[in-house]
Specification:
By secondary structure, the chain is mostly helical. It contains four helices and no strands. The N and C termini lie far apart (33 Å).
Length: 119
């Protein structure tokens, strides 16, 4: 917000930011009794995606950067698994998930390419 750093120039950063906001919006629609369970977990993992991208981009060594990007990608997988359960519990019915899906897939593909270039 106050610092003008390189990660803010990455398309990935804008996609991950949009993804976090979509996760928060979606979690606001979940049952209140999930406040300390699924809602909290999804929000923490979503924020982890964005924060690990930012921190990884600031690392000087490639191996350090990749490690932060791996953590971010792992958090995306965690959210996908949580949303699968939420769907089975009918927490996602009547929800438009297209923007969340689009940003999740974009982040996953870009992170995967940054972790394993050329694959």
């Amino acid at each position: 917000m106050f610092l003008k750093l390189n990660h803010q120039k990455l398309d990935l950063c804008s996609f991950s930011r949009a993804f976090v906001l979509e996760c928060y919006r979606l979690s606001n629609q979940m049952p209140p009794d999930e406040r300390f369970g699924m809602i909290s977990q999804i929000r923490r993992a979503a924020l982890s995606v964005h924060l690990n991208i930012a921190e990884g981009a600031s690392r000087k060594s490639e191996s350090e950067r990749k490690r932060f990007y791996e953590i971010a990608r792992g958090s995306l997988i965690e959210i996908d698994a949580a949303l699968d359960i939420a769907n089975e519990l009918d927490y996602l019915k009547d929800q438009d998930l297209s923007r969340l899906e689009e940003n999740m897939v974009r982040c996953f593909k870009i992170l995967s390419a940054m972790i394993n270039p050329g694959h």
